[in-house]
Design goal:
The complex is a heterodimer. Chain A is an alpha+beta fold. Chain A has one domain: Ubiquitin-like (UB roll), CATH 3.10.20. Chain A contains four helices and five strands; from the N terminus they run H-E-H-E-H-H-E-E-E. In chain A, a hairpin with a 2-residue loop joins strand 3 and strand 4. The N and C termini of chain A lie far apart (about 45 Å). Chain B is α/β, with parallel strands linked by helices. Chain B has one domain (about 5-245): Rossmann fold. Chain B has an eight-stranded mixed sheet with strand order 3-2-1-4-5-6-7-8, with helices on both faces. The termini of chain B are far apart. Classes of the chains: A alpha+beta, B alpha/beta. Chains A and B meet through helix 2 of A and strand 5 and strand 6 of B.
Chain lengths: ~110, ~240
């Protein structure tokens, strides 16, 4: 978003968000994806649409009902988002979203 | 008091933190949960740094498939208990420290006793259920938990100080499914040394600990970054306790 644009322009324009995957999710889906979304897009729909490009990646993040697997960690602009809230939380222009699993081995 | 031999052995690091720092290390007792991929570099580097007492716990026997990463154990150790192998190597690399080795599975019943009077716990485990047990013990004893974990070329680490930082369960409330994880030795080598570095900084009171931040390492990119982590006020492991403070 260019600074100084007025509100009407903003509503008509697509928003840009950045999704960053880590660890195993990164292997399957890539490091950093910058994508355009329309206003009102929810967290879960955005990540699902992005992950669908790789079925193994999608299955690593979502269960068979399309819900986030319970161990998945979601962050928006450095703050934790509860996966239970991901369906009702909308993304905003310029958001940076991080998606990662707990790394477990030793 | 440091012996003549110790003064000579630690000469180069005492240029950094003096005999006062070295005495702090000598008086310290660190509990290392696991003598595998992470536990190997952690224990070796804490041993050579002169951490006076190291307790190390593992329930496994050395297997050939361990040897690509578990550098405490040699080919000749295949079939021996990891604790026996670990104690032998750590005492050989530094005879001036005390090494306690416990051949037992850590669980909710024995963990507090095993940790005893240790000044800190190093998480060198390979599963979250046991990590959560260690997290509970760290909270109950109010001692730090130095977390590390690895998979493939990826690793993560954070230092948990009960009452001051999020606990492990605040950061990772749910365990991922168990798997036979792929790993190359350099990854636990890297993360284990980071954990050992955290332990030394904590004991010496030097530098900035990896507190309130999760260090994430991508070995394939040669890239590290940090994510800020926060306490969960309703955390089932530490929420209530921290609110009381």
């Amino acid at each position: 978003m260019v600074a100084g644009k007025d509100k009407i322009d903003r509503e008509e324009e697509d928003m840009t968000v950045k999704i960053r995957f880590f660890a195993r999710f990164r292997e399957l889906l890539g490091t950093e994806i910058i994508t355009e979304v329309t206003a009102g897009t929810t967290f879960i729909s955005l990540i699902a649409a992005t992950a669908e490009k790789n079925s193994e990646g999608y299955q690593a993040i979502f269960d068979e009902k399309g819900a986030f697997r319970d161990f998945v960690i979601l962050m928006k602009n450095g703050r934790r988002i509860d996966i239970a809230d991901a369906a009702k939380t909308s993304v905003n222009d310029g958001d940076e979203i991080a998606v990662f699993p707990p790394v477990a081995g030793g | 008091m440091l012996s003549e031999r110790e003064l000579e052995r630690y000469k180069r690091q005492m240029m950094l933190f003096g005999d006062e720092g070295q005495e702090k290390l000598k008086k310290a007792h660190i509990f290392i949960a696991g003598a595998g991929g992470l536990g190997s570099p952690v224990s070796l580097y804490l041993a050579v740094a002169g951490v006076g007492t190291i307790s190390i716990v593992d329930m496994d026997i050395v297997d050939q498939t361990n040897l690509n990463r578990q550098i405490l154990h040699f080919d000749r150790d295949i079939g021996r208990k990891k604790t026996v192998s670990a104690k032998e190597k750590l005492e050989a690399i530094n005879p001036d420290i005390i090494v306690n080795a416990f051949d037992v599975k850590i669980d909710g019943r024995n963990a507090a006793d095993l940790v005893g009077e240790a000044d800190g716990i190093v998480d060198a485990m390979d599963n979250y259920p046991t990590r959560y047990v260690l997290n509970d013990v760290a909270i109950a004893k109010r001692i730090p938990l130095f977390h590390g974990a690895i998979r493939g070329f990826d690793g993560q680490a954070t230092t948990i100080i009960p009452g001051k930082t999020p606990c492990l369960k605040c950061i990772f409330p749910r365990a991922p499914p168990k798997e036979v994880f792929p790993v190359v030795g350099v990854t636990p080598g890297f993360i284990g040394i980071l954990q050992a570095n955290e332990v030394l900084k904590y004991l010496l009171g030097r530098g900035h600990l990896l507190t309130n931040r999760l260090f994430m390492w991508d070995g394939l990119q040669g890239h590290a970054e940090e994510i800020c982590v926060e306490r969960n006020p309703s955390c089932e492991a530490c929420g209530g306790r921290q609110r009381q403070n």
